[in-house]
TrEMBL record:
UniProtKB keywords: Lyase, Pyridoxal phosphate
Keyword Repeat recorded: no
Protein name listed in UniProt: L-serine ammonia-lyase
Catalytic activity: L-serine = pyruvate + NH4(+)
Pfam families associated with the record: PALP
InterPro entries registered for this protein in UniProt: ACCD_DCysDesulf, Ser/Thr_Dehydratase, Ser/Thr_deHydtase_PyrdxlP-BS, TrpB-like_PALP, TrpB-like_PALP_sf
Organism of origin: Pseudomonas auratipiscis
Similarity comment: Belongs to the serine/threonine dehydratase family. Belongs to the ACC deaminase/D-cysteine desulfhydrase family.
EC numbers on record: 4.3.1.17
Cofactor: pyridoxal 5'-phosphate
Single GO MF descriptor: pyridoxal phosphate binding
Amino acid sequence: MSLHIETPLLASRPLSLASGLDIWLKLDALQPSGSFKLRGIGLACETYASQGKRRFVSSSGGNAGIAVAYAGRSLGLAVTVVVPETTTERAKQLIRQEQAEVIVHGKAWHEANALALSLLGDDDAYIHPFDDPLLWQGHASMIDEVAISGFKPDAVVVAVGGGGLLSGVCEGLARNGWNQVPVFAVETAGAASLAAAMAQKAWVALDSVQTVATSLAAKQVCKRAFEWSQERVVYSHVVSDQDALDACERFLSDQRILVEPACGAALALAYAPSETLKRYSRVLVVVCGGVTATIDQIRQWRTTA
Ligand SMILES: *Cc1c(COP(=O)(O)O)cnc(C)c1O
């Protein structure tokens, strides 16, 4: 049995009225770990467990680390998450409440990640937050669920960080015969690594990233995500931090679900569709979720972003 759950697919009256489109929501914010990440990470952890691994090691202080911790507890295996000093108390507490060991190390993520890699023994599996074919295969299950429901979208809107979610959505569309359905890939301006790569038609990295949408803060998307953007129709769209935050607040009021600014980025495009998106009528928005930002934090950012 998979570790993730089948999530609701629903037509959103408030978003449809706001956009003038027919907006459908895939509510992966309702996964037990609070984000879509459990789909791919759950599959990866189950696979590594079946290969005899006894412990999972992660270096994500965000939704990936929380999903690994959840998967480990569900499978009865140990989890160690190494996070940098900048990680919030809330994120550490969310990982610890899944009974995972949290090690705080280093000023930035690459230092925490280096320690995580150095801990790996023969019985350990390292779980990458976005760059592993098992993750994409697992994330693709959300599109299988949509296809089974009988609903076929004209376009899909998805947030992009390291591009694992985008790769999974494209894989899911491909394996359901929906390669012609365009994907709108949304990033915030301070972390627009896919937009940069697509503009240069090269798998480039940004020098730095700066955004309130911390789950999107990857300097470079995984190679597979870039390849998908060259192989099929992917429209890159960039929103401001303020737009992403406003969308979080509005979505909370409209749908009574709190999501991170990372997810707010995708919702921002749905609330205010671009001319390109307006060419389509039935639009599926992947509500990827995220648990690391409280409403107080989002409101504080809104006054300063
Ligand atoms: C990880 C994450 C993303 C981005 O996913 P990638 O696979 O890194 O592109 C978006 N939203 C939330 C809530 C996330 O946790």
